[in-house]
Amino acid sequence: MSVLVVGAGGHAKVVIATLRASGAEIAGMLDDAPEASPVLGVPVVGRTEVLSSHAGQAVIAIGSNRVRQRIAGEYPSVAWATVVHPAAVVHESVALGPGTVVFAGAVLQPDTVVGRHAIINTSATVDHDGDIGDFVHVAPGCNLSGGVTLGEGVFLGVGGAALPGATVGAWTVVGAGGVVVRDLPANVTAVGIPARPLARP
Questions:
Q1: Nearest to 123 by CA among 136, 138, 105
Q2: Averaged pLDDT of the chain
Q3: Is 54 annotated as contributing to ligand binding?
């Protein structure tokens, strides 16, 4: 398959490497920044507006959950590619939504469901029956126990973890190394062990 990569920043490097490892052809990159330059030899061939007439597949290679949500919403007719590194372990019962990327060393265990445009980053693990929402970013080295639910747009920082059955509400951010031992509400930032919401100013 030939895939157009949306975004020309640091996250795009890992997406491009994953595409190449999976045997995909890269059609070029799109970026709205005038200073955008080639990444790993892949040229910038236009702005994101090219998606409105793009007939092939594309993937959003941008780490920001909100930006991925915006771009996906602006171009709903695009054939969004689901990209899995061959060094990831994804059980055959796992369901991956369009636009989702799974990086090297990640492990997704049986009956996990991952929504649209999610990122399962390098060496992250999601155990059985995980429910990972749209536009979620599970950062490198995270470990989710069985039956964990991450609502839409959740960001789980580097090295974070969640205990069995825990739920994190939509658009909540869990800081690096945070451990979710009980349910967290939506739209908060939580840090620490156990992860607790920061007091609002």
A1: 105
A2: 96
A3: no
Active site residue 128: yes
Residue 199 has pLDDT above 90, yes or no: no
82-192 CATH, one of 1.10.3720.10, 3.30.360.10, 2.60.40.10, 2.160.10.10: 2.160.10.10
Q: Look at residue 66 in the predicted model and tell me its pLDDT.
A: 98
**Peptide bond before residue 194 is cis, with ω within 30 degrees of 0:** yes
Rounded to whole angstroms, how far apart are CA atoms 151 and 186?
Answer: 8
Output the six-digit token pair for 1. 């398959």
Domain boundaries, the chain: 2-80, 82-192
Give bridge partners of residue 3 from the DSSP assignment: 26, 57
Q: For residues 172 and 156, what is the distance between their CA atoms, to the nearest angstrom?
A: 8
Inter-residue contact 127 to 144 (CB < 8 Å): yes
Phi first, then psi, for residue 123 (nearest 5°) are 60, 20
Q: What is the DSSP letter of 180?
A: E
The strand pairing partners of 174, in sequence order, are 156, 190
Q: Any known ligand binding at 63?
A: yes
